User: Which sequence fits this backbone?
């Protein structure tokens, strides 16, 4: 839940209600990431989880990015902003590993790939449980070989970015149930099911299928403690949006969100180029939020978004028990 929804207050409330909350490190500077872990620690005596994006080589080219930037310019001008600089960066990876080692959240999870062997040894020596997000059996096998302690098995109904390791690959299409079965066939590591889970019945189903736990994100987007912006909150509850779509138009990586005009207009021309496209579209998305316009901002959500509830984290978790 990078980009705002995950807050120290949400993590603390989840812990108080018997769940494990995660702080999202994606897109944050290392100092801000550290500040949020400390804030969560100050709010709870329970365990804290932290998630970081693993940098991968970009799949983009300067030519493709220049063409895409040109298609965005009319929309940017409409909002009175310039498209961002389509730059590559590693999301402050090394510094965030230092933050994890220093502040020692009980669990660290990784999305888009795996930390190196040396980093794994260092984090484990700090007493941190290591969890990898995987979308296929092949990724699960790699994660097991790298020494992960557990796996989050992400199905195709998940909101936000797919955790696919290869930035140039199309997302896997097997259902969550099929992926769980395939992963359990290649490793004995504990698996946590994720993707499209919104109800107590959903959780019971994946537990019956062999998952030791369920991980939910979209179910908490409307929580009181979530940092979901007002445009996103309103869109999730609006009859204007009826379906989700998987798109690379906002970030240059495949992600699922509410289908809006930006996806319809720009998905066909968007290159696979992460994080360059993320930086390119960022000023437009920010301007759309300021303007209260849901048609030009990434509204990440899983396929079950209609069942997202308002209220406190504790009340939402009570309904999921």
Assistant:
């Amino acid at each position: 839940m990078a980009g705002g929804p995950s807050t120290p207050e949400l993590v603390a409330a989840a812990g108080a209600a018997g769940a494990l909350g995660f702080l999202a490190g994606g897109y944050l500077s290392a100092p801000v990431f550290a500040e949020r872990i400390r804030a969560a620690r100050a709010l709870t005596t329970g365990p804290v989880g932290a998630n970081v994006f693993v940098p991968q080589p970009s799949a983009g080219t300067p030519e493709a990015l220049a063409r895409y930037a040109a298609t965005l310019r009319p929309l940017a001008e409409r909002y009175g902003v310039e498209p961002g600089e389509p730059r590559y960066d590693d999301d402050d990876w090394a510094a965030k590993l230092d933050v994890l080692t220093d502040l020692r959240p009980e669990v660290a999870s990784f999305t888009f790939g795996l930390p190196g062997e040396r980093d794994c040894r260092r984090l484990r020596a700090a007493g941190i449980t290591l969890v990898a997000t995987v979308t296929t059996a092949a990724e699960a096998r790699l994660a097991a070989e790298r020494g992960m302690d557990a796996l989050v098995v992400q199905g195709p109904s998940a909101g936000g970015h797919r955790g696919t390791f290869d930035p140039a690959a199309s997302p896997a299409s097997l259902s969550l149930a099929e992926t769980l079965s395939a992963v359990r066939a290649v490793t004995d590591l504990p698996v946590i099911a994720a993707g499209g889970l919104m109800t107590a019945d959903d959780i019971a189903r994946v537990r019956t299928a062999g998952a030791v736990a369920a991980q939910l994100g979209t179910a908490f987007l409307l929580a009181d403690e979530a940092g979901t912006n007002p445009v996103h909150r309103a869109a999730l509850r609006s009859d204007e949006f009826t379906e989700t779509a998987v798109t690379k138009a906002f970030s240059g990586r495949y992600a699922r969100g509410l289908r809006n005009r930006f996806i319809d207009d720009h998905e066909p021309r968007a290159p696979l180029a992460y994080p360059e496209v993320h930086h390119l579209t960022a000023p437009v998305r920010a301007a759309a939020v300021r303007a209260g316009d849901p048609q030009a901002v990434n509204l990440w959500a899983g396929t079950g978004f209609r069942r997202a509830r308002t209220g406190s984290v504790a009340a939402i978790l009570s309904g999921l028990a």
